[in-house]
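Model the whole thing, not chain by chain.
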Amino acid sequence: MSRLAATFAELENTGRKALIPFITAGDPHPDFTVPMMHAMVEAGVNVIELGVPFSDPMADGPVIQRASERALAHKMSLRKTLAVAAEFRNTNQTTPVVIMGYLNPIEAMGYEAFADAAKTADIDGVLTVDLPPEEAAECTALLKARDIDPIFLLAPNSTNERIEKMDALGSGYLYYVSLKGVTGAGHLNTADVEQKLHQIKARTNLPVGIGFGVKDAETAKTVAALGDGVVVGSALISKIEANLDNPERAKQEICELLSAMRLAMDSVGA
Amino acid sequence: MTEKYNMPDVRGHFGPYGGLFVAETLIPPIQDLNAAYQQYMNDPEFIAELDADLQHYVGRPSPLYYAERWSRELGGAQIYLKREDLNHTGSHKINNTVGQALLAKRMGKTRIIAETGAGQHGVATATVAARLGLECVVYMGAVDVARQSLNVYRMKLLGATVVAVESGSKTLKDALNEALRDWVTNVDNTFYIIGTVAGPHPYPAMVRDFQAILGREAKQQCLAQAGRLPDALVACVGGGSNAIGLFYPFINDESVKLIGVEAAGDGVETGRHSAPLCAGKPGVLHGNRTYLMSDEDGEVIETHSISAGLDYPGVGPEHAWLKDTGRAQYVNITDTEALEGFHALTRMEGIIPALESAHAMAYTMKLAPTMRKDEIIIVNLSGRGDKDMQTMAKREGIEL
């Protein structure tokens, strides 16, 4: 059983939901990322999404765009992101790590070389924002052959046909983008998300993580009740951005927010 | 190439290039767009409306002008200019915006967005939006807003909102990123008019089909005026819409050489250029696989050209395919050479070209003398130079 499957199975057994933070590797500095990942695990997260910085992050709002720019200023890359993940794995063998980014760095490395490198780094999942199922067959097959889960996005306007396509091609979990827009935008509409999750859940047995628009413990709690996991990114990166002169304080504030989310999520149904 | 050219395939692939590389939220609106495009391009009523607009609003057909004096001066092939500079709004860009705006209207969209580099596509979009009474937002890199301020003012006069994009290199690619972010946020009421033959399928094919009018005209005009097909076609290539518009109707005419001219900026060897076909490698950006300027980590690198309209790290996927198959040839022209082309056409023929088109002129100056006097070159004069007066004056130390 993959690390992601085991994690979601154990959460289900204990009636809890996954807390899934997203941070950009190398933001604000390459040395910051591994200690931040360990601290987030301490704060109660279950899966870590590690963003690969990209020069043209088309699906991201300004907060994650700037995180990418800060990381790129330190020459962070896909290769170095994998090295960060491998270093984390040296001292943590249980928390799944998902690499999230755009296709061109993978194209530049070559699909097969990337799949091998991801396996060597003991990556658990790969989410490529601009690689929809239409174009994903080759890359997905290479990942699956190495027991790495390809993670796909679902959106509010995804049809039943597409949900079934993602269910067939994806594994690990599905990432439901809760609103039409870029990361960090607006506020999600709980009723809309609930309705869509019914539609999705009727067509897949994969766990569904919900992201885009999760800002605080309150929204985390609400969203946790609707799916299997809560993804939070921009709200965390805002803490980094607000403390560029003091990364330790950024780490502390991120962990406080995640702990509060953990507490709120675990109080669902209690 | 003996078989009839029939690209792209049903999924928008030109061999390994093109395709549909976008985030999930954009898939449904792109599918809707593709369905509408397939429907209306075969709808006689739509085509009739498009043709009428092209004739009465754009001013088509544009002339094919025999540049007799310049041809004599260069002492080789006879040069004909396809006068897209004479179109309404001053470039070929309006052929496409008229078409896409009609499509937007048929699809019931009330809001138009666009990206622009030199501002020609932005102006052409703002123009059709004004005419149809649609809200219009144009994204433009902050660097381009500064160097093409006349076109910014034109767009504002036409009622468009111009958003200066401050992210990344603050040029055309960043404007495209921002337009995609807008589209993903406003998919329900918004139509994204992409200005070049790039982007996710069906844009490369759709924009080509709207621009191919200029190549079809050029073919007929050349046959009528010179009694035969040309020997070579020359066009500048940024994203590559004016070049594809000219090349496409000639692809099966194997005797006709197709030559695309990229912007070499300070020189391809300096790294400060915008010539992905000459010096890039395949990659994925803005929804399609194509030749791209990116570093070994796959990060897109900043480009340079004196011409804002060519200052783009990618290129339409069909050009990538035409390069790999050898059907078209791609060359490059530096900023300095482009300025020579600019001055030559201005002085020899009394026509001031856009700096983009000046790259095609500069290559023609190299090519024509190597050809026989009974041979024919058609050069796409894709736009007029009025918008570049400030850039030229500044470069030559003149205060306007």
